Amino acid sequence: MIYDLPTDDAPIDQGDIIDGCPVLHVASFNVDDFETESESLEIEGSFCRVVVLSQTCDLANHKITMATVALIGLPEPYETE
């Protein structure tokens, strides 16, 4: 088997694939408003399928509080069956 499904209490490792991971992204931002502290920054969130990029040793030793991830595949509205 190429991929094992870890138990719910297993630690997160580099290379793990996580379905339904909450991810924040910038929905809109006007660079012209950057200097004026305008409210032009809009953040949205979605649940995505991701792969963990952070190193396992940093996660295991609690050197980081957030993992770096990369999206896998296309966002849901663009997926085809």
What characteristics describe this protein?
81 residues, mainly beta, 3 strands, 32% strand, elongated
Q: Strand pairing plus helix content: what structural class?
A: mainly beta
Count structural domains: 1
> Judging from the principal axes of the Cα atoms, what is the shape?
elongated
The N- and C-terminal alpha carbons lie at a distance of 24 Å
Kindly estimate the percentage of residues that lie in beta strands according to DSSP: 25-35%
Number of helices: 1
String of helices and strands: EEHE
What is the mean predicted local confidence, pLDDT? Answer: 83
Q: Strand count, sense and closure of the main sheet?
A: 3 strands, antiparallel
Radius of gyration: 17 Å
Assembly state here? single chain
Percent in helix: under 10%
DSSP E strands, number: 3
Low-confidence stretches: none
Going across the biggest sheet, name each strand in turn.
1-2-3
Structural overview:
With 81 residues, this protein is mainly beta. It has one domain. The chain is 6% helix and 32% strand. The chain contains one helix and three strands, in the order E-E-H-E. The protein has a three-stranded antiparallel β-sheet, with no helix packed on it. It starts with 16 loop residues before the first strand and ends in a 10-residue tail after the last strand. The mean pLDDT is 83.
